[in-house]
Design a protein that fits this description.
The protein is an all-alpha fold. It contains 7 helices and no strands.
Length: 187
């Protein structure tokens, strides 16, 4: 019984994989919309987190209540509302933070490869990747559209690879189902 549940409906994975591949195309073609959706969801998460903290403050006993928890929850709700109502500022903040992190990683990769140049003959390949990453980070800080494109490309590649993985897994699962069925028919 458990084996049949494990191996049935391989086609569901195939459909999910195809849908994810289609979604990745939409993501690649609409970087601004993707970043706006990310900003909206991030604002909603911050708002709901603050709201949960605010509501939970009333559910705990009086001796456990803290003014700092209430103030923190209210601040999170206000920040969440601002993030949702001021989407352009939220998008700019996301691209700047992404750009800073990317630039820091690029600089670390570049400096690490420079330090390893005497031990490794292909250090320059890693250095080029570091330079590319550093430039991507700086572009993301300076230009919101470049930042949204970089973030959307990362999300798009993740969704595309997930979809391809599900398609391959679906065919692998179908192949295993056929082998298991033919093995049981021999008995």
């Amino acid at each position: 019984m458990a084996v049949s549940i494990l191996f049935r409906n391989w086609w569901v994975l195939l459909i999910q994989g195809i849908l994810l591949i289609g979604l990745s195309v939409v993501i690649f073609k609409n970087p601004d919309a993707v970043l706006a959706a990310v900003a909206l969801w991030l604002g909603a998460i911050v708002l709901v987190s603050g709201l949960v903290g605010f509501i939970s403050w009333f559910s705990i006993s009086n001796e456990e209540r803290s003014v700092s928890i209430m103030l923190g929850s209210c601040a999170m709700m206000i920040i969440g509302i601002l993030m949702i109502s001021k989407m352009l500022i939220t998008i700019k903040a996301i691209t700047v933070l992404f750009g800073l992190l990317t630039a820091i990683v690029g600089w670390m990769v570049l400096s690490g490869s420079w330090n390893a140049r005497k031990q490794w003959s292909l250090w320059w390949v890693v250095a080029l990747l570091g330079v590319f990453t550093l430039i991507t980070g700086i572009k993301s800080i300076m230009d919101v559209y470049a930042g949204s494109e970089s973030i959307s490309n990362l999300i798009g590649f993740a969704v595309l690879l997930s979809g391809i993985g599900l398609v391959f897994f679906a065919f692998l699962k179908r192949s295993l189902v056929n082998k298991v069925k033919s093995g049981f028919q021999g008995y």
